[in-house]
Structure formats: C-alpha cells, structure tokens
Amino acid sequence: MNQQPTSRYDSFSLFLHWSTAVVVTIAFILGPGGFGRLMRQGVDPATRSDIVWHESLGMLVLALTVLRLAWMALRPAAPQFQLSGWMHWSAKLVRIALWVLLFALPVTAFMALGSEGHPLTLLGGVRIDRMPFIAESRVAGLADWGDVHQFLGDAIMWLAGLHAIAAIFHHVVLKDGVLMAMLPRRKSR
Questions:
Q1: Is 162 among the domain residues?
Q2: pLDDT tens by residue, 94-139
Q3: What is the pLDDT of residues 28-68, one digit of tens each?
Q4: How many CB atoms lie within 10 A of CB 32?
Q5: Is residue 2 part of a domain?
Q6: pLDDT band at 184 (very low <50, low <70, confident <90, very high)
Q7: pTM, whole model, 2 decimals?
Q8: DSSP result, 119-160
Q9: Range scoring the smallest mean pLDDT among 26-40, 68-82, 141-155, 159-173
Q10: Number of domains forming the structure of the chain
Q11: Are 31 and 153 in contact, with CB atoms under 8 Å apart?
C-alpha cells in the first residue's frame, strides 16, 4: 500500500470510523436499562426490540472493530500531525482506551449473557439460548458482568465525547487539520 505522508485518512478508514461511531451511539441509546431484572422477571428478550437491536448492533460493533483492526495493517499511511508531547501522548492514550473498550464491550456482553444464562437475541430471529463455555468458566463468577458492561458503555460514550471535543478544539483553536483529516472531502464546485 501507499505509505507516503498524507493529511487525510483514506475513504474506507473514514467509513469504518464514522460507522463505528454511529453504531456505538445507537447501541448505547437502545441499551435496555435493567436488562437483568427484566430477564429475572421472565421477559423473553426476543419480544423486546430494544434488546434485539442493542445486541445486534453490539455484534456489528465487534465486526466493524475487527475489520478496522485488519484494515489498519493494510491501509495507506495515516496522517501525521505535529503535536506537543502531552497532546501526542494523551491522544495515543485515548485511542488505545477506545480500542480496548470497543473489544471489551462485546466481551463483557457475552460474559453477562453467558454467566446469567440469558440468550443472545439478534435481528432475523437468530438466538443463542445457552453459552455453557462461559457459564462454566472460572471468570463467570468474578464480577456482575452486566454492571461491568454498563459501566464500560458509559465510559466509551464519555471517552468518545472527550475525543470529539479534542477534535473540535484542534479545528477551532489550533487550526491544525486534525479534524479535517477524519472528515469526508468536500466536493469542489
């Protein structure tokens, strides 16, 4: 692939970034509050569209994240910007934390469902009723995985918000092109 310096991300990287951002946000909004309580009350998750959509979008986030990671190994060179030392390290730390959360959220969802014996319900009527490999694992009882999942869901939204504020700061105050590198090109007239 082309490894020449550039001031913009490639189109596929933009698509993956913004698709992930939108899907994570919608999944967060549709995240059913009190999921465990609903299941203990005997509610079938397949009867709740918010649950089905939340879990389906969560699987889409996992797929997009794996695809993004693979694309990072193949894509053209990412733009490089001259940043002060603290900005460089804080940006790197936030990116790493977002990547960790993008993987940790689906993992904790599986842990919550499997350890509590709840089914995974997806669009199209796909349903996995039991996950014995999780339920019988030693880590299943180490935490209330539903609470961990909820905490991490809140954390990714806060961190994504901070990420967005930093990008706007770069655009409005520093005027250094960081935000423009992640936006689609404007069509010239």
A1: yes
A2: 999 999 999 999 999 999 998 888 899 999 999 998 888 888 888 8
A3: 999 887 777 787 788 888 888 999 999 999 999 999 999 99
A4: 19
A5: no
A6: confident
A7: 0.88
A8: PEEEGGGEEE---HHHHTSGGGGSS-HHHHHHHHHHHHHHHH
A9: 26-40
A10: 1
A11: yes
Name the pairing type of β-strands 126-128 and 120-122.
antiparallel
Residue 64 in any domain: the answer is yes
Q: Is there a contact between 146 and 117 (Cβ–Cβ < 8 Å)? A: no
Q: Which domain holds residue 160?
A: 11-79+91-181
Residue 84 lies in a domain: no
Task: Return phi, psi of residue 126, to 5°.
Answer: -75, 130
